[in-house]
Design a protein that fits this description.
The protein has 335 residues and is α+β, with helices and mostly antiparallel strands. It is built from seven helices and 20 strands. Among the domains are: 140 residues, FAD/NAD(P)-binding domain (3-Layer(bba) Sandwich), CATH 3.50.50; 78 residues, D-Amino Acid Oxidase, Chain A, domain 2, CATH 3.30.9.10. Helices cover 25% and strands 24% of the residues. Strand 16 and strand 17 form a beta hairpin. The model has no long low-confidence stretch (mean pLDDT 96). The structure holds flavin-adenine dinucleotide.
Length: 335
């Protein structure tokens, strides 16, 4: 959001408490335009994908780091129903840009092929190295002297007719991008969030070679250094950022059915995804104080959603452009 505003020539100040855990710091960063369950395009894929490609490419130049990678995803197909659905859907207008018709038969090196009928392939997918991206963005803003490393103090907001004053400085708007911690925000905690914890592992796997993401009831994302991210779990009850042993076992059990070699866990991380009740982002002004804005609800798909909707909120702030009803904060405000 801050980069979007900065690129449009705006003065921004970021207040970030990096001692707080964050979902983005642990995210696998996958971009997947397909919902496998019904083999449909993911929400707004046709609009989001071209937008994010252009945006991440421009940001890579600005931040002088390569953090976006195009990688195809292979879906393990195990039964006739899945196989027939894939074949039937592959040429449908809504999905044909995102999946290949041909199903690969040969298994990647190091995979058990018993019971596998083939591998369906998703294109226009990939991932963003979110840690690298965030570190590069923070460096950029620190160099521009507009990054304040501290906890945001809600008591220090003074609302004015023209905007607000925060710790002695005038601003037109304050945009809250607090992820899960929005529940502490006195202005936006009323919003219906339904956060979901996720655990993810970084692993090395003996003898397994695959340059594509492998997807089943887990994903195995190959990283540049030859290790893999293995994820992810969904837990709506234990909303903390502590890695859970049972989630780790669960992930290792799921993948064990497919992998031949020994798996070594190199890192185990957990985060809480800021999902909303209707699983759509939430953006726009506070009902009483329009100088206070929210940008949240990115849920499980922040990497795909953030570029497009940051631009939409920027258009709203700078040009009073309307916000899509599906994501507009007003949908939760009763008159
Ligand atoms: C295990 C896991 C795997 C995931 N995998 C993917 C994936 O493959 N693809 C994908 O697109 N998404 C994935 N996600 C989801 C993704 O992480 C989120 O959609 C996205 O990161 C949300 O970003 P955010 O900026 O809203 O929240 P966050 O990343 O949580 O950032 C919130 C920020 O606000 C700061 N903050 C909050 N309150 C305050 C305060 N009072 N003062 C100062 N600073 C404050 C925090 O320090 C933090 O930096 C995954 C999430 C998890 C947990």
């Amino acid at each position: 959001m801050a980069l979007e505003l900065k690129q449009r020539g705006q003065d921004v100040t970021i207040v970030n408490d990096s001692s707080l855990p964050s979902s983005s710091k642990v995210a696998a960063g996958l971009i997947n335009p397909v919902v496998f369950k019904r083999l449909l395009p993911s929400w707004k894929a046709a609009e989001l994908l071209p937008f994010l490609l252009t945006k991440y490419q421009a940001l890579e130049i600005l931040l002088e780091q390569k953090f976006h990678h195009s990688v195809n995803i292979t879906k393990v197909i195990e039964n006739q129903h899945e196989l027939e659905t894939w074949k039937k859907r592959a040429n449908a207008e809504d999905i044909r840009d995102y999946i290949l018709e041909e199903i690969a038969i040969e298994s990647p090196t190091g995979l058990k092929s018993t019971d596998v009928l083939g591998y369906g392939e998703v294109v226009q997918s990939g991932y963003v190295d979110t840690t690298l991206f965030l570190t590069a963005a923070a460096e950029f803003f620190k160099k521009a002297s507009c990054f304040i490393e501290t906890s945001f103090s809600y008591n220090d907001i003074e609302l004015t007719s023209a905007g607000l004053i925060y710790q002695g400085k005038n601003y037109d708007f304050l945009v809250f991008c607090e992820g899960f911690f929005v529940h502490r925000n006195p202005y936006f905690s009323f919003l219906p969030f339904k956060p979901v914890k996720g655990d993810v592992l970084t692993v090395s796997i003996d003898g397994y070679k695959n340059t594509k993401v492998l997807n089943k009831n887990f994903f195995l994302l190959p990283l540049i250094d030859g290790t893999f991210r293995l994820g992810a779990t969904y837990d709506w009850k234990n909303l903390d950022f502590k890695p859970s042993e049972s989630a780790k076992e669960d992930l290792l059990n799921r993948v064990a059915d497919y992998i031949l070699g020994k798996i070594e866990v190199l890192k185990h991380e957990a985060g809480v995804r800021p999902s909303s009740e209707d699983r759509r982002p939430i953006l726009g002004p506070h009902p009483e104080f329009p100088q206070l804005q929210v940008f949240n609800g990115l849920g499980t798909k922040g990497v795909m959603l953030a570029p497009f909707f940051a631009a939409q909120l920027a258009n709203h702030l700078l040009h009073n452009a309307p916000i899509d009803e599906e994501v507009f904060v007003g949908r939760f405000i009763k008159n």
